[in-house]
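Input (Gfo/Idh/MocA family oxidoreductase):
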Amino acid sequence: MSASFRWGVIGPGRIANRFASALTANFVGELYAVASRDLVKAQLFLQKHNGKVCYDNYQQLLADPNVDAVYIATPHQFHFEQAKACILAGKSVLVEKPLTVNAKQSITLMDLAKKHQVFLMEGMWSLFLPSYRQVDDWLSADKIGRIKFITSSFGCKIDRDENDRWLNPALAGGVLLDMGVYNVATSLWFHKQSVETMQASGIVGSTGVDELCLMNFKHSNMSYSQLSCSFLADLQNDLVIHGEKGKIHIGPLFWEAETVTLLVDNSELKIHTPFAVNGFEYQIAEVEACVRAGQLQSSIMDHQRTLQTMQIMDAVRQQLGVVYPAELD
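Output:
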């Protein structure tokens, strides 16, 4: 492996542009290759982000010995097969959240990665942000006492294009897998407790995917979470951790927050932790460090954490009655 870590990208779409931009940070590697079925799209992406080579075939990228790791940024439905191909090719892989469509697929990938001794991680980038490290420090120092209740919301009114992946069941669309995954993963991260019981309700739209979802969790230590996500309306989009002695506010936009606030005894401490680039660079640095060290998982975003989130989202979709066409096969 060279001194500069070389990334390959599969799926040069919206989120991949953010990933590639983060590679301009001076503590991470570089964009080396991109693959897309649309070669023109791949070429434009490569030029925009100063990459080296592009392919119109995923297998060509996986066969390139210069690629140190692959970032998968395609719609959810394609994550499983593409990540599987990376693992079988011996390529370390970071998969944009959610890792797969359901827990069954996630378990298969995790088992395969272990068998072939290949690094695999879900791209839950929020957990690596400096703001989240600050919140962890406050919680470890018992600043707000025992956590009793976490609330979070993630919602915006989207343009109703039924061909877009957000509303397309064939692409595993729906608000839960796209936005709600942040609510679930961050709640579990801060509680550090399993979900004992849960109740979900919501609105399933005309295309058969969830467009609004409300979730109530009771955790194993008698603490609670109340989470909401929506394609139908703009929500508060923050996260609040309520403890016995105070609370912590993450936001605005809790999943990409640069500001966190500690409120205890009528006093307020606000800390701003600006990104080096756009926030993706911190999870990139984690992957690179793990791969260089020969680790198969991140100690922060390990397989068990991903699996726990996937199992909860499976249960939520079951309560809502949302099943994707591929799951019926």
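The first helix runs from residue 14 to 22.
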